[in-house]
Amino acid sequence: MATMKSLIGLINKIQRACTVLGDHGGEGMSLWEALPTVAVVGGQSSGKSSVLESVVGRDFLPRGSGIVTRRPLVLQLHKTEEGTTEYAEFLHAPKKKFADFAAVRKEIEDETDRITGKSKQISNIPIQLSIYSPNVVNLTLIDLPGLTKVAVEGQPDSIVQDIENMVRSYVEKPNCIILAISPANQDIATSDAIKLAREVDPTGERTFGVATKLDIMDKGTDCLDVLEGRSYRLQHPWVGIVNRSQADINKRVDMIAARRKEREYFETSPEYGHLASRMGSEYLAKLLSQHLETVIRQKIPSIVALINKSIDEINAELDKIGRPIAVDSGAQLYTILELCRAFDRVFKEHLDGGRPGGDRIYGVFDHQLPAALKKLPFDRHLSTKNVQKVVSEADGYQPHLIAPEQGYRRLIDGSISYFKGPAEATVDAVHFVLKELVRKSISETEELKRFPTLASDIAAAANEALERFRDESRKTVLRLVDMESSYLTVEFFRKLHLEPEKEKPNPRNAPAPNADPYSDNHFRKIGSNVSAYINMVCDTLRNSLPKAVVYCQVREAKRSLLNFFYAQVGRKEKEKLGAMLDEDPQLMERRGTLAKRLELYKQARDDIDAVAWK
To answer: What is the predicted pLDDT for the residue at 19?
Structure first.
């Protein structure tokens, strides 16, 4: 099995790394939360700070009235070889070693004020302190602000609840060992620490009870019922502590001498002498260290499982946002082309129905074009009055003799010219749909999200190509309209000429019909004939215009949307290729954070494998 030193030291190392990377939570349990820790909980003036200093064997915590601990203090103790020099290190000042523990106290005060100011506010941002000494055991303790019942001057009314919420956020975690500090000269049943511990750990399996101030209890009273587990039973034994008196603190009695004095108290005490081997700060430190090592060993499988799960999640996110790009031009060009192809695939899926949007093009052909054709002003253009006007103008000074062919041609040309509007509108409507599909495809191509510059370049290139396709499509549909004017379907008019011959002949003596070539009926007949021909042309264009638009715009967009862009990219120099792959700074920062966290988890897994099963 791993030694206690290596196993607890490993957890300390992982905790420090988690703090540096801010790995304190998020969805699910963070690695920090999965690591067993000891949280020190107690009310103000319960002797909490004195217990910690006794465990460390050094004066190093700020003292004073009111709330002195205003930020959580993560205290990591590292046992060193006998004869080595004691020193302390703060995570926020990693290159500075503190051999003077009065300077450690000053640094804690200054670092607290840096976040909370000189006020009496609290902050949940922890201070992380490591102490290396031959006089400590390997242990991690979290010193939390003392529970209080009343806000003092300069504190908000919510301070009581704020402190309790902060303390609760630590002790309610299933991997937290609770060190509940209660003064023996008060009723244990009313202890703030025990009350909170009972709420979050009702079975008492995570709670260690500590009774302080045994030496200043009222004469004739003792704490045996508590220490022997009769008045309040926990699954772990209670430990009694005798803190330094205020006189000892004023005289600067060092902690090693205080430990010795504490041992003598229990060994010579008529009430507690039989418990002396299980009392005192030294015993408490060893008890906690041994229990912490046992818990760590029990939790190793779940810690490793969490690490493996986290590694898989980080790798999946890194794959999603993309790995770092190589710096050589060949790799950069390959990456750009791959990203272009990824966009092109999404764009084609929109057109072909794999994603929504392509159906809007069919909507242009099936709804917008027919509706536009129905609104054309043929009724006005082929009214009897306008037909007469056009035919008369076409005849000039010599009226037509049989059929007004020039009048027919002018009426037909004028009518066909109206089709240019719907034809161009169809081109523009499809162009708008294609542009919108480009925009959606850019936003939906996951690989492009990390490269906003390249995404912008691809969008610009695609829109330029669509403009070229629209210009060609507009020319084509206008040609189709002009073709209808350039050559009329003769058979249609020949059929019209033969229709009167099919009518039943008049009786020999019947009066001749009104054959006046300039009557209203005559012009209505011309308008009707032209209208019938225009309807035939309309049916033709309704079918041919969509084909031309699809051929010139949709088909080309699928085949060669980025061809011109590919040619331009191939001629770019390395520096310009690199500029195109300029990533979103937030994404780069996120990748860097993920890479560091991934390295932390992998190193933690390797370290655990190296020491856990020796």
So the answer is: 67
Q: What is the pLDDT of residue 28?
A: 45
Asked if residue 356 lies in contact with residue 413, where contact means CB atoms within 8 angstroms, the answer is no
What is the per-residue pLDDT for 200? 94
Structure-token match 């699928």, residue found: 558
Cα gap 87→137, rounded to integer Å: 15
- pLDDT value at position 149? 78
Cβ neighbours of residue 177 under 8 Å, at least 6 residues apart? 36, 37, 38, 39, 206, 207, 208, 288, 291, 292, 295
Residue type, 214: L
pLDDT at 23: 59
Q: Report pLDDT for 420.
A: 94
Taking the whole predicted model, whether its pTM rises above 0.85 is answered as no
Nearest by Cα to 592 from 265, 322, 222: 322
Whether the Cβ atoms of residue 580 and residue 338 lie closer than 8 Å to each other: no
Strand order of the β-sheet with 87-90 is 93-98, 87-90, 127-133, 73-79, 139-143, 37-42, 176-183, 207-212, 239-240
**What is residue 20's predicted lDDT score, i.e. its pLDDT?**
64
Q: What is the DSSP letter of 82?
A: T
Q: Is 367 exposed, middle or buried (0-12, 13-18, 19+ CB in 10 A)?
A: exposed
Taking phi over 0 as left and psi of -120 to 50 as alpha, with beta for the rest, 507 belongs to: beta
Amino acid at site 210? V
Distance of CA 542 to the CA centre of its chain: 49
Angle, to 10 degrees, between the axis of helix 452-486 and the axis of helix 329-352? 50
Burial class of residue 561 (count of CB atoms within 10 Å of its CB; 0-12, 13-18, 19+): buried
Query: Which parts of the chain register pLDDT below 70?
Result: 1-6, 16, 19-30, 32, 64-67, 151-154, 326-327, 395-403, 496-518, 574, 612-614
Q: By CB neighbour count within 10 A (0-12 exposed, 13-18 middle, 19+ buried), where does 505 fall?
A: exposed
